[in-house]
Amino acid sequence: MSGNKNFVLGVYSDEDELLKAIPQVRESGVKIHEVFSPFPVHGIDDVLGYKRSNLSIAAFLFGLLGTTLALTMQIGMMAVDWPMIVGGKDHLPFPTFIPVTFELTVLLAAFGMCGTFFVASNLRPWAKPRIFDERITDDKHVVVVDIDKQKMSEAEIKSVFEKAGAEEINNKQFD
Predict the structure, then answer these.
(1) Residue 37 CB-density burial (10 A; 0-12 exposed, 13-18 middle, 19+ buried)
(2) Taking Cα atoms as reference points, which of 8, 13, 7 lies closest to residue 167?
(3) What is the pTM of this model?
(4) Is the pLDDT confidence value at 12 over 70?
(5) What is the Cα–Cα distance from 68 to 76, expressed in whole angstroms?
(6) Are 40 and 46 in contact (CB under 8 A)?
(7) What residues are paired with 73 via a beta bridge?
(8) Sheet with 168-174, edge to edge strand ranges
(9) SS3 helix, strand, coil % of the chain, rounded to 5?
(10) 122: left (phi over 0), alpha (psi -120 to 50) or beta
């Protein structure tokens, strides 16, 4: 049973009950693996103790890369590779660079942010998702606890979920 992963699931029907239960579970010393919900629950990030994402920093850096590439490309084409005087205008007409620079900045920021999200979230097209409970896409909120990463026994974790008001407590095992 070395490759198997064992989990305990606490199932809730109402998001308010879920938001009240999560601090109780965390204060009892149980480390929550993940919380699944059929819709976004306002304030759940704060209750789970998640920090602000660094995705905005990645977006800024990819946008900066897009701006740099756009300006380098245009300056290289217009002033270095093929300098032409058209109508007595300068070789570097910066106002005409604005649309291309803006578009490449937005393009690289968007693609870079999506790529960073996929890599950070370990989302791969060939990955087989773990479905803990079919009802998480319909009407149930599920708090998942990885038994192998706890200092408490499975029975103690289940009693914590009972005290926290879980309407169902289930086990789930993955190979």
Answers:
(1) middle
(2) 13
(3) 0.72
(4) yes
(5) 12
(6) no
(7) none
(8) 34-36, 141-146, 5-12, 168-174
(9) 50, 15, 35
(10) left
Residue 96 in this model has a pLDDT that exceeds 90: no
Side-chain-facing half-sphere of 149: CA atoms under 13 Å: 11
Contact between residue 55 and residue 113 where contact means Cβ atoms under 8 Å apart: yes
The CA–CA distances, whole Å, from 162 to 53, 123, 167 equal: 32, 33, 8
DSSP the chain: --S-EEEEEEEES-HHHHHHHHHHHHHTTPPP-EEE-SS--TTHHHHHTPPPPSHHHHHHHHHHHHHHHHHHHHHIIIIIIS---STT--S--HHHHHHHHHHHHHHHHHHHHHHHHHHHTT--TTPPP--S-GGGGTT-EEEEEEGGG-SS-HHHHHHHHHHTT-SEEEEEEE-
- The rounded distance, in Å, linking the Cα atoms of 43 and 165 is 19
CA distance 175 to 168: 23
Domains belonging to the chain, first-starting first, are 5-51+130-174 (3.30.70), 55-120 (no CATH)
73-101 mean pLDDT = 86
